[in-house]
Amino acid sequence: MIDWVHQEEGYCEGYFKSTFFRDDEKKDIFTVMSSNPDSNEYAEKCVEAFNNLTETIIYEICKEIIHHVKEEETYEGIELSSLDNPLDILNHCWFTTLYICATTNDNDIAYIVEGEGDWGNLIGFAIKNNMLVHVGDDYFDYMEED
Questions:
Q1: DSSP 139
Q2: pLDDT tens digits, residue range 10-24?
Q3: Which of 27, 78, 128, 135 would give a disulfide with 110, using CB separation of 3.0 to 4.6 Å?
Q4: Cα(64)–Cα(39) distance, rounded to whole angstroms?
Q5: Closest Cα partner for 75 from 117, 119, 124, 121?
Q6: Non-local CB neighbours of 30 within 8 Å, separated by 6+ positions
Q7: pLDDT over 50 at 146, yes or no
Q8: How is residue 120 annotated by DSSP?
Q9: 114 Cβ contact list (under 8 Å, min separation 6)
Q10: How many CA atoms lie within 13 A of 89 on its CB side?
Q11: pLDDT in tens, 67-83
Q12: What are the tens digits of pLDDT across the range 56-115?
């Protein structure tokens, strides 16, 4: 699933196809980043989990993106009230990179997805064990080991 192009301790980079989310050019190729070349199997599990997010979780992510954008008042030029469906926010933001999170429990699946919005700021979300744990711009705070 992941096509690794660079692997060394501290920096691993590869690519995979996203089944739902798209980048700024509406393409489905995402970057995956990991700090441990020995965790390829774990990275594959994270990508698989990302590609199998439920409609409910995706809907929740979109609602939280809208909430974050409103809270930060960064939506200049975007008519948030015209979004009939929370999924419509994906017309104004995109995602490009999945960061594999180190965990102390091999059964945990944790990752961060990073993107950007038409409003010019980074936006991301953190998932742990198929649960949304954070949406916002400080998503790297959720990448630390448990």
A1: G
A2: 889 999 999 999 999
A3: 128
A4: 30
A5: 119
A6: 15, 16, 17, 18, 21, 23, 95, 96, 97, 98
A7: no
A8: S
A9: 95, 96, 97, 98, 99, 122, 123, 124, 139
A10: 24
A11: 988 887 666 667 777 78
A12: 999 999 999 999 888 876 666 677 777 889 999 999 999 999 999 987 777 889 999 999
Amino acid at position 86, single letter: P
What does the alpha-carbon distance between residue 119 and residue 55 come to, in Å, rounded to a whole number? 25
Question: E strand or H helix at 7, and its extent?
Answer: strand 3-8
DSSP string, 40-99: HHHHHHHHHHHHT--HHHHHHHHHHHHHHHHHHT--TT--GGG-SSGGGGGGTEEEEEEE
Q: Give the helix/strand (H/E) hosting 3.
A: strand 3-8
Q: Specify burial of residue 107 (Cβ count, 10 A radius: 0-12, 13-18, 19+).
A: exposed
Cβ atoms of 94 and 24 within 8 Å: the answer is yes
